[in-house]
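Re: the 218-residue chain
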Amino acid sequence: MRRFLSVVLVFAGSSVAAAQSADAAIDRAVAAWKPVKTARGAFEQVVTNSLTGGTATARGEFQQERPNRLAIRFSDPKGDMIIADGTALWVYLPSSAPGQVVKQRATDRSAVPIDFTGDFLTAPRTKYDITDGGAQTIDGRATRMLKLVPKTGSNSAFTRATVWVDDQDGVIRQFEVSESTGITRRIRLTTLNLNAAVDRNAFKFTIPKGAKVVDRSS
C-alpha cells in the first residue's frame, strides 16, 4: 500500500509540475509578445498531408505591423506571397494556383493568422486547453513545448497546435498547426527581430497582370 501511495504521489507531483511549467511558459510568452508592434524575419515551413503522405518545404521572409498588416514573401517557391494590407488579405500562390489571386477580409483568420504567433497569445486560456509537452531545443535554444487544443465554440482555424516558447525571452520560436483537412504546418522562425523597422511598401499588393481575382471578402 505504501509503495502504491508513493507512486500515486510521484505521479501527482509530476502532473502539478508540468501544469506549472505550462502556466509559466504561456505567461512568459504573452508578456513577451504584448509590447511587440512590429516584427520581421525569415522562416522555414514544412507542410504535411496525412491523407496523401506528401510533404513540402517552403522558405521565405516576413514583415509584420500589428494588428492587421502582414507581408509574407516566399523565396522557395519563389514568387508566392501572402499580403495583408490592413483592409484585405491577398493570397497569391502561382506555384500551386497560377494566374489566381484570392482576396479575403483582413479580419478573416480562417486561412492565415494575420498576427502570426500572436494568434496563440490572445486570451490563450479562454480559447485553448493548454498542456505541457516537455523541454526541447530549437536551433540551439532551450524551449518549452506547449500543446494547445481549441475549446468548444472557440471557432479556431485548427484542431490542435503546438508552440515552442523560448526559455530565455518567452518568444515563440516554432509552431505547428493541424487542420481538419489532414494538413499539418510546422513553421520554424530561423531569424526574428522584434520592434524592428519595417518597409510600409511591403504591405502593398499589386494584382499581377492577367491574374483572376477570386473575391471572398464579401
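The CA atoms of residues 12 and 32 lie 30 Å apart.
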